[in-house]
From TrEMBL:
Annotated Gene3D superfamilies: 3.90.1200.10, Phosphorylase Kinase, domain 1
Family listed: Belongs to the aminoglycoside phosphotransferase family.
Name of this chain's protein: Phosphotransferase
Limits of the Aminoglycoside phosphotransferase domain: 38-141, 151-229
UniProt-annotated binding residues for Mg(2+): N168, D182
Alphabetical list of Pfam families matching this protein: APH (PF01636)
Active-site residue numbers: D163
Record carries keyword Acetylation: no
Superkingdom assignment: Bacteria
Metal-binding is among the record's keywords: yes
Amino acid sequence: MQPPETDFGDDIAVPAAVTMLAAGRPLTPIWRNVLGGLTYRIGTDYFVKFAPRGSDLPLRNEAGRLAWAASYTPVPEVVSSGADDTGEWLVTKAINGWSAVDKRWDKATAVTAIATGLKELHNGVPVKECPFDWSVERRLEKVDRDKIGNPPAIDRLVVCHGDPCAPNTLLGPDGRWVAHVDMAALGVADRWADLAVASYSLSWNYGDGWEELFFATYGIAPDPERIAYYRLLWDLG
Protein backbone atom coordinates (compact mmCIF):
# COMPACT_ATOMS: atom_id res chain seq x y z
CA MET A 1 0.00 0.00 0.00
CA GLN A 2 1.25 3.46 -0.81
CA PRO A 3 0.87 6.17 1.85
CA PRO A 4 -2.09 8.53 1.88
CA GLU A 5 -1.56 12.06 3.08
CA THR A 6 -0.10 11.83 6.57
CA ASP A 7 -1.68 13.21 9.73
CA PHE A 8 1.44 13.35 11.90
CA GLY A 9 2.65 16.32 13.89
CA ASP A 10 6.31 17.09 14.37
CA ASP A 11 6.03 16.12 18.03
CA ILE A 12 5.19 12.43 17.48
CA ALA A 13 8.03 10.27 18.78
CA VAL A 14 8.53 6.87 17.16
CA PRO A 15 7.56 4.18 19.70
CA ALA A 16 10.47 2.03 20.83
CA ALA A 17 8.65 -1.10 19.68
CA VAL A 18 8.31 0.31 16.17
CA THR A 19 12.01 1.18 16.07
CA MET A 20 12.80 -2.39 17.12
CA LEU A 21 10.55 -3.84 14.42
CA ALA A 22 12.11 -1.63 11.77
CA ALA A 23 15.52 -3.12 12.56
CA GLY A 24 17.36 -0.26 10.88
CA ARG A 25 15.11 -0.04 7.83
CA PRO A 26 13.66 3.37 6.88
CA LEU A 27 10.46 4.37 8.69
CA THR A 28 7.88 6.58 7.00
CA PRO A 29 4.99 7.95 9.11
CA ILE A 30 1.69 7.28 7.37
CA TRP A 31 -1.23 7.99 9.67
CA ARG A 32 -2.27 8.93 13.19
CA ASN A 33 -5.90 8.25 14.11
CA VAL A 34 -8.07 10.05 16.64
CA LEU A 35 -7.43 7.39 19.30
CA GLY A 36 -3.67 7.80 19.09
CA GLY A 37 -2.95 4.82 16.88
CA LEU A 38 0.10 5.20 14.62
CA THR A 39 0.89 3.62 11.25
CA TYR A 40 4.34 3.52 9.67
CA ARG A 41 5.75 2.05 6.51
CA ILE A 42 8.88 -0.06 7.08
CA GLY A 43 11.11 0.16 4.05
CA THR A 44 9.01 -0.56 0.96
CA ASP A 45 7.54 -3.94 1.82
CA TYR A 46 5.87 -3.71 5.25
CA PHE A 47 3.58 -1.65 7.41
CA VAL A 48 3.34 -1.54 11.19
CA LYS A 49 0.37 -0.30 13.21
CA PHE A 50 1.00 0.64 16.82
CA ALA A 51 -1.68 1.16 19.46
CA PRO A 52 -0.42 2.87 22.62
CA ARG A 53 -1.43 1.25 25.88
CA GLY A 54 -4.84 2.50 26.95
CA SER A 55 -5.87 3.60 23.46
CA ASP A 56 -8.50 0.84 23.17
CA LEU A 57 -7.42 -0.09 19.64
CA PRO A 58 -7.95 -3.88 19.18
CA LEU A 59 -4.96 -4.83 17.04
CA ARG A 60 -5.06 -8.42 18.35
CA ASN A 61 -8.61 -8.63 17.06
CA GLU A 62 -7.49 -7.32 13.69
CA ALA A 63 -4.64 -9.81 13.36
CA GLY A 64 -7.01 -12.74 13.80
CA ARG A 65 -9.60 -11.33 11.44
CA LEU A 66 -7.08 -10.56 8.71
CA ALA A 67 -5.60 -14.05 8.95
CA TRP A 68 -9.06 -15.60 8.59
CA ALA A 69 -10.35 -13.26 5.87
CA ALA A 70 -7.26 -13.70 3.68
CA SER A 71 -8.63 -17.02 2.41
CA TYR A 72 -11.65 -15.28 0.90
CA THR A 73 -10.86 -11.64 0.09
CA PRO A 74 -7.81 -9.41 -0.54
CA VAL A 75 -6.45 -8.05 2.75
CA PRO A 76 -2.94 -7.35 4.06
CA GLU A 77 -0.96 -10.45 4.96
CA VAL A 78 -0.14 -10.61 8.67
CA VAL A 79 3.58 -10.93 9.33
CA SER A 80 3.61 -10.63 13.12
CA SER A 81 1.83 -9.09 16.08
CA GLY A 82 2.67 -8.52 19.69
CA ALA A 83 2.49 -6.33 22.76
CA ASP A 84 4.56 -4.94 25.60
CA ASP A 85 4.04 -2.47 28.44
CA THR A 86 3.80 0.43 25.98
CA GLY A 87 1.19 -0.94 23.59
CA GLU A 88 0.34 -3.40 20.82
CA TRP A 89 1.58 -3.72 17.24
CA LEU A 90 0.66 -5.42 14.01
CA VAL A 91 3.02 -5.89 11.07
CA THR A 92 1.62 -6.63 7.60
CA LYS A 93 2.98 -6.94 4.08
CA ALA A 94 2.42 -3.99 1.79
CA ILE A 95 -0.16 -4.15 -0.99
CA ASN A 96 0.38 -2.47 -4.35
CA GLY A 97 -2.39 0.06 -3.94
CA TRP A 98 -3.38 3.48 -2.65
CA SER A 99 -6.09 4.56 -0.23
CA ALA A 100 -9.34 5.75 -1.77
CA VAL A 101 -8.69 9.16 -0.20
CA ASP A 102 -5.31 9.57 -1.88
CA LYS A 103 -5.23 12.80 -3.89
CA ARG A 104 -4.32 10.93 -7.06
CA TRP A 105 -7.91 9.70 -7.51
CA ASP A 106 -10.79 11.65 -8.95
CA LYS A 107 -13.85 11.36 -6.73
CA ALA A 108 -15.96 9.23 -9.10
CA THR A 109 -13.16 6.67 -9.43
CA ALA A 110 -12.76 6.45 -5.67
CA VAL A 111 -16.48 6.15 -4.91
CA THR A 112 -16.93 3.47 -7.58
CA ALA A 113 -14.06 1.46 -6.10
CA ILE A 114 -15.45 1.75 -2.56
CA ALA A 115 -18.86 0.42 -3.63
CA THR A 116 -17.33 -2.32 -5.79
CA GLY A 117 -15.06 -3.45 -2.97
CA LEU A 118 -17.91 -3.69 -0.46
CA LYS A 119 -20.03 -5.66 -2.90
CA GLU A 120 -17.16 -8.08 -3.52
CA LEU A 121 -16.60 -8.46 0.22
CA HIS A 122 -20.28 -9.04 0.97
CA ASN A 123 -20.72 -11.53 -1.84
CA GLY A 124 -17.41 -13.32 -1.57
CA VAL A 125 -16.86 -14.07 2.12
CA PRO A 126 -18.97 -16.96 3.50
CA VAL A 127 -21.25 -16.05 6.38
CA LYS A 128 -21.54 -19.61 7.67
CA GLU A 129 -17.77 -19.93 7.97
CA CYS A 130 -17.21 -16.64 9.77
CA PRO A 131 -16.37 -16.93 13.48
CA PHE A 132 -16.68 -13.19 14.12
CA ASP A 133 -19.77 -11.21 15.13
CA TRP A 134 -20.60 -7.56 14.43
CA SER A 135 -24.32 -7.98 14.94
CA VAL A 136 -26.57 -5.09 15.87
CA GLU A 137 -27.54 -6.92 19.07
CA ARG A 138 -23.95 -7.07 20.22
CA ARG A 139 -23.29 -3.43 19.34
CA LEU A 140 -26.41 -2.28 21.16
CA GLU A 141 -24.95 -3.62 24.41
CA LYS A 142 -22.56 -0.65 24.38
CA VAL A 143 -25.03 2.18 23.70
CA ASP A 144 -28.03 3.74 25.39
CA ARG A 145 -31.04 1.94 23.91
CA ASP A 146 -33.28 4.86 24.80
CA LYS A 147 -31.38 6.99 22.30
CA ILE A 148 -31.77 4.65 19.36
CA GLY A 149 -34.68 2.27 19.87
CA ASN A 150 -35.15 -1.14 18.28
CA PRO A 151 -33.23 -2.05 15.12
CA PRO A 152 -34.94 -2.59 11.77
CA ALA A 153 -35.44 -6.12 10.52
CA ILE A 154 -32.37 -7.77 9.01
CA ASP A 155 -32.21 -7.34 5.26
CA ARG A 156 -29.32 -9.71 4.47
CA LEU A 157 -26.60 -11.08 6.70
CA VAL A 158 -23.10 -10.78 5.25
CA VAL A 159 -19.55 -10.62 6.54
CA CYS A 160 -19.21 -6.88 7.08
CA HIS A 161 -16.01 -4.87 7.06
CA GLY A 162 -16.92 -3.16 10.32
CA ASP A 163 -15.13 0.12 9.52
CA PRO A 164 -16.03 0.73 5.87
CA CYS A 165 -15.08 4.41 5.77
CA ALA A 166 -13.48 5.60 2.54
CA PRO A 167 -9.79 5.47 3.62
CA ASN A 168 -10.04 1.72 4.24
CA THR A 169 -10.52 0.83 0.58
CA LEU A 170 -7.38 0.43 -1.55
CA LEU A 171 -7.25 1.04 -5.29
CA GLY A 172 -4.67 -0.46 -7.61
CA PRO A 173 -2.70 1.39 -10.30
CA ASP A 174 -5.66 1.06 -12.68
CA GLY A 175 -8.04 2.78 -10.24
CA ARG A 176 -9.97 -0.37 -9.40
CA TRP A 177 -10.57 -1.85 -5.95
CA VAL A 178 -7.79 -4.21 -4.87
CA ALA A 179 -8.13 -4.73 -1.10
CA HIS A 180 -9.50 -3.61 2.25
CA VAL A 181 -7.56 -2.58 5.36
CA ASP A 182 -8.33 -1.80 9.02
CA MET A 183 -10.61 -4.75 9.69
CA ALA A 184 -10.55 -5.05 13.48
CA ALA A 185 -14.37 -5.10 13.62
CA LEU A 186 -14.99 -7.54 10.74
CA GLY A 187 -17.91 -9.83 11.45
CA VAL A 188 -21.36 -11.02 10.50
CA ALA A 189 -24.05 -8.33 10.40
CA ASP A 190 -26.76 -6.88 8.21
CA ARG A 191 -25.14 -5.46 5.07
CA TRP A 192 -26.73 -2.10 5.86
CA ALA A 193 -24.38 -1.75 8.83
CA ASP A 194 -21.61 -1.37 6.24
CA LEU A 195 -23.60 0.36 3.51
CA ALA A 196 -24.95 3.09 5.78
CA VAL A 197 -21.53 4.00 7.13
CA ALA A 198 -19.61 3.68 3.86
CA SER A 199 -22.04 6.05 2.17
CA TYR A 200 -21.99 8.29 5.26
CA SER A 201 -18.23 8.68 4.95
CA LEU A 202 -18.38 9.88 1.35
CA SER A 203 -19.45 13.37 2.42
CA TRP A 204 -16.60 13.53 4.95
CA ASN A 205 -13.98 12.79 2.30
CA TYR A 206 -15.44 13.95 -1.01
CA GLY A 207 -18.27 16.37 -0.21
CA ASP A 208 -21.98 15.93 -0.87
CA GLY A 209 -23.55 14.30 -3.89
CA TRP A 210 -21.81 10.93 -4.15
CA GLU A 211 -24.32 8.56 -2.56
CA GLU A 212 -26.27 8.03 -5.78
CA LEU A 213 -23.17 6.71 -7.55
CA PHE A 214 -22.26 4.58 -4.55
CA PHE A 215 -25.61 2.80 -4.33
CA ALA A 216 -25.95 2.46 -8.11
CA THR A 217 -22.51 0.83 -8.30
CA TYR A 218 -23.28 -1.54 -5.45
CA GLY A 219 -26.60 -2.33 -7.13
CA ILE A 220 -29.11 -1.51 -4.43
CA ALA A 221 -31.65 1.22 -3.78
CA PRO A 222 -31.06 3.36 -0.67
CA ASP A 223 -33.08 2.25 2.35
CA PRO A 224 -33.70 5.43 4.37
CA GLU A 225 -34.83 3.64 7.54
CA ARG A 226 -31.83 1.32 7.74
CA ILE A 227 -29.41 4.04 6.69
CA ALA A 228 -30.62 6.37 9.43
CA TYR A 229 -30.55 3.66 12.09
CA TYR A 230 -27.08 2.34 11.37
CA ARG A 231 -25.61 5.81 11.05
CA LEU A 232 -27.00 6.74 14.45
CA LEU A 233 -25.65 3.49 15.91
CA TRP A 234 -22.25 4.35 14.44
CA ASP A 235 -22.34 7.83 15.96
CA LEU A 236 -23.42 6.55 19.37
CA GLY A 237 -20.79 3.81 19.35
